Amino acid sequence: MSRRPRGAVRGGRALSLAVLLLLAACTTQGPDEPDDVAPAPPPGQRWRPAPEVSWQWQLSGKLDTSVKAAVYDVDGFNTTKEQVSALEEAGRRTICYLSTGAWEEFRPDAGDFPEELLGEGNGWEGERWLDIRRRAELEPLMAKRFDMCREKGFDAVEPDNMDGYRNSTGFPLTAEDQLAYNRLIAKLAHDRGMAVGLKNDLDQIPQLVGEFDFAVNEQCAEYEECERLTPFIAAGKAVFHVEYEGRIEQWCGQSQELRLSSLQKKYELDAWRQFCPPGD
């Protein structure tokens, strides 16, 4: 499951009853949302999502393919090749969610990771940080996962847990370790013809914006840091953004000004969503 680092912030708070009731009363998507599609890239070129493209992010529950968004970001292991193909035929582009910075005991390849690569828990049950300094050992493991994404027909990869150096991983990770590992992850995606997103890791955007095709961010409005994502927008690259707390009207205006692709989601990242439409 995706998460915002910083002590697993996403799981650390509960929504107020009033907000929960408000969200429960809303439908998966608003009645005025247009049926949006994204054209396939030219042959031989990888997909490059532009700012303000619409999206859906679903990592739990039965996949709802009726959402009218142009882009679907879904679990790489649990989503089938047939589901990816159906979305592509409907004009949707697809992003393969993977955890590249943390080990997950519930994945089918969990046994392929040597114990010495596993560090402290990252705040989520069954998950432990990876020693990203050990790139020679991690590269073939991640390459196999990226091969899976490509074989299923995904257009892009969302690698999660990309800023372990800012967390208590059990390893003395440095910013330089993180930059080297993140660049390796970008190369693995690009070598397979897929786009790749930088997940959170705001501090390293200046060094990495040229090597990643889009950004994925959680809670930048809550932490008053959305403007730090503008290098991606300035480069003509999408920023896929979600908030979990509060009400969408509290932050949608700023997202429109910054040209972010923004959603209100629940912590479990099921099919439910509210979308913030592009600004005028």
Automatic annotation (TrEMBL):
Pfam families: Glyco_hydro_114. PROSITE patterns: PROKAR_LIPOPROTEIN. Keywords: Signal. The keyword Plastid does not apply. This is Endo alpha-1,4 polygalactosaminidase. Residues 1-30 form the signal peptide. Residues 54-272 form the Glycoside-hydrolase family GH114 TIM-barrel domain. The keyword DNA-binding does not apply. InterPro entries: Aldolase_TIM, GH, GH114_TIM-barrel. The lineage of its organism: Bacteria, Bacillati, Actinomycetota, Actinomycetes, Kitasatosporales. Gene3D superfamilies: Aldolase class I. Residues 30-49 are annotated as: Disordered. It comes from the Bacteria.
